[in-house]
Amino acid sequence: MLMLGFPKLSRAVVRVGRLAAQLSKATMSTSPSSAANGDTTTAAILIIGDEILKGHTVDTNSAFLTRALRKLGVSVQRITVIPDIQEVIAKEVALLSSQYTHLITSGGIGPTHDDVTFESVAMAFQEELYPHPELTRLVQEFFGVVDKNNAAMKLAMVPRSAKLNYGTDPQTGQPLRYPLVSVRNVYIFPGIPSLMERAFNGLENLFAGSGTTFHTREVFVDADEADIAPVLTKLQADWGRRVALGSYPDWLSNYHRVRLVLDSDSQEEVDKARAQLLTELPKGSVVPLVTDPVSIATAEVYTLANSGTPLGEKVMSALKTIEAALDQYSTEEVCVGFNGGKDCTALLHLYYAAMKRRYSDGKDKVKALYIRIVSPFPEMERFLQDTIKRYDLELFSVEGSIRQALSEVQERKPELRAVLMGTRRSDPYSHTLTPMCPTDPGWPDYMRVNPLLDWTYHDIWSFLRTLYVPYCILYDKGYTSLGSMDNTCRNTALQMVDARGVTRYKPAYLLENEEEERNSRA
User: How buried is 290 (Cβ within 10 angstroms: 0-12 exposed, 13-18 middle, 19+ buried)?
Assistant: First the structure.
């Protein structure tokens, strides 16, 4: 049998060898798990690859492994990304494998010159590489090679103490054909995400059985992080290491500004800590999180319509107009005018609810017409793309004036006959409109459907925020009416000076005098 060792010990090998020896002595009486975190099973993740550090490839493996290990009761204590340099890899392997229960590496396995993980692990433990008989046979089967000098045979060269771990395909229950190589407590996974995930899912048993279950609770707060920092500091001091509290600002949410996450291996303690947090946070600052308002749109919208409230009556009237349009036209003949503004966002949610109620088993998508303006806000463009995904829209975009846009739509989409519009009677040139009225003479022939004619500015905001419908983030930054970047500014009626003396703008839904709505437009 061919035996391969390191031909000549370099200074790097000597340094790594000394490090390994020192770590071995230091941990002779202490296991990796207890050394790192009491009795909790711990892990470190070592991502190997120049392509990650150079930005050529995005690392998704560490996120997958962190989530998967946590479900198994394993606490990930460190994630390190390092280049394809043998000395660096060996040093990290020697260090991390002595500190944590498991060390999981990802990357650096293959037939090329920069695939040096097996060599590096051997260096870390001062072992030689050798052609593992079983791996040699598998490589020959997979790659159809028998020449021991073929590049593919590099995959069979592993440290002398290497163990082969065969997983089970969770989908079929059949054994996986290719094993995962491990050396001591180091598990050497491939870097390709699909292969890494398949191998891990088939070998969860290697990491399970710690007996630990992590419990997580979330609290969403509509307050500045700086304002609640004293509460968070006190709570963390009260609970110490029994409960971990994390604070994460969210700049893109319309309904909360901070997400608080409590973690513990004790369900009782994490629930007590959450209860304490809810008591000590500013009154009215905790808000619910509706993660998917679209999937519950029909139920929530019609419940509101039947609530008997003034807003409910407005919703009921709008739904009747939409339903009348659906009585007269098929979904193929109807589209929603959508430019990302607050009115058409409310209209889209109403139409989506009505359409899904009428055609609950239908697969037709909501059709939306977007008349693109010159110099749109980047935030509006991003919101538009998010809305397309959120409602699974079939959106067609045109440019020009409304009349030009409708003429182009008539050519491109001749089947369309009705356009739902978010027009309110307070909008310019709209005081004579009716809920359903044809376009004016000389315009492309369409039925204009106006469900929101009798809604007010405050009705729009009450509807959106009651149902937690996402809207363009610009409305939370002092804008009350959105056009292009050339003709839109913050509304001075919303300007304020906070307690720190900083000039800021309140969100649009707090505008008191709705006659000042269009002060945002030049």
Answer: middle
Q: Residue 222's closest CA among 172, 288, 268, 165?
A: 288
Residue type, 435: P
Q: What angle do CA 277, 283, 284 make, to 5 degrees?
A: 105
Distance CA 388, CA 406 (A): 21
Dist CA 298 CA 315 (whole Å): 12
Q: Where are the alpha helices (DSSP H) in 166-306?
A: 193-202, 225-239, 267-280, 297-305
> For the purposes of burial, counting CB atoms within 10 Å of the CB of 492, is it exposed (0-12), middle (13-18) or buried (19 or more)?
exposed
Q: Which residues pair with 419 in a beta bridge?
A: 335, 448
Q: Which residue has the tokens 């059949």?
A: 174
Q: Return the pLDDT at 36.
A: 40
Q: What is the pLDDT of residue 148?
A: 80
For residue 20, what is the enclosing H or E element? Answer: helix 11-26
Q: Are 505 and 473 in contact (CB under 8 A)?
A: no
* Strand pairing class (367-372; 394-399): parallel
Helices and strands (H, E) in the chain, number of each type? 16, 20
Ranges of the chain whose pLDDT falls below 70 = 1-38, 209-210
Whole-model pTM? Answer: 0.75
Report pLDDT digits (tens) over 60-99: 999 999 999 999 999 999 999 999 999 999 999 999 999 9
Dig out the tokens for 466 from the structure.
């009651």
Spell out the residues 6+ positions from residue 314 whose beta carbon is closer than 8 angstroms to its own. Answer: 454, 455, 459, 463
Please list the residues that pair with 395 across neighbouring strands. 368
Distance CA 395, CA 340 (A): 12
At residue 26, the pLDDT reads 44
Q: What is the Cα–Cα distance from 480 to 474, expressed in whole angstroms?
A: 8
Residue whose C-alpha is closest to residue 521's, from 497, 485, 496, 494: 485
Calpha distance 396→233 (Å, rounded): 50
Alpha carbons 276 and 294: distance in angstroms, whole number:
32
Give Cβ neighbours of residue 369 (< 8 Å, ≥ 6 apart): 335, 336, 337, 338, 395, 396, 398, 405, 409, 419
Angle, CA 265 vertex, CA 264 and CA 270 arms, to 5°: 40
Q: What is the DSSP letter of 463?
A: H
